[in-house]
Design goal:
By secondary structure, the protein is of the alpha+beta class. It is 37% helix and 15% strand.
Length: 148
């Protein structure tokens, strides 16, 4: 979360410049992206480390907060009272430019993964409650932007 907001250009987020660009497949809803704070990752690691190995699942997927990039831009706009330019790029065209263009740019691959929905860990296999077990409150995007 802290590495992507407010300036995660690798995902198309540039809140200081009031700009957000989402890669969206044609005819599909805008993909959601999961943002997890460093603190929540550390707390999850501590939770896992405190358990017996036989009690651990094969994989653990966590998602601190999950929003579309449009929702992020609109929320930030409401906080600052100024317009945030939210634009979309067609996934198919973007994919072709990333996979067949040069030079390779890892940031564009992150945008491509977000556009494909591969960065949404909120639904299938979300282990937040298992990891948390009521020990802490997950940090939200609102907390981050409010400085809490």
């Amino acid at each position: 979360m802290e590495h992507a907001i407010p300036s995660g250009r690798h995902l198309g987020i540039d809140l200081p410049s009031r700009s957000v660009t989402a890669v969206v497949p044609a005819g599909m809803p805008e993909p959601r992206v999961s943002f997890t704070s460093v603190r929540d990752v550390a707390m999850t690691i501590a939770s896992v480390a405190s358990r017996r190995p036989s009690d651990l699942p094969d994989a653990i997927r966590i998602a601190g907060d999950t929003w579309t990039l449009r929702q992020l831009g609109e929320y930030y706009e409401s906080l600052i009272g100024a317009q945030v330019h939210v634009t979309t790029q067609d996934y198919s065209a973007f994919s072709q430019s990333v996979l067949h263009g040069s030079p390779q740019n890892i940031a564009r691959h992150y945008q491509l993964a977000a556009g494909a929905g591969l960065l949404d860990y909120s639904t299938n296999f979300n282990d937040n409650e298992w990891a948390n077990a009521g020990m802490w409150q997950w940090r939200s995007i609102q907390h981050l932007l409010a400085g809490i």
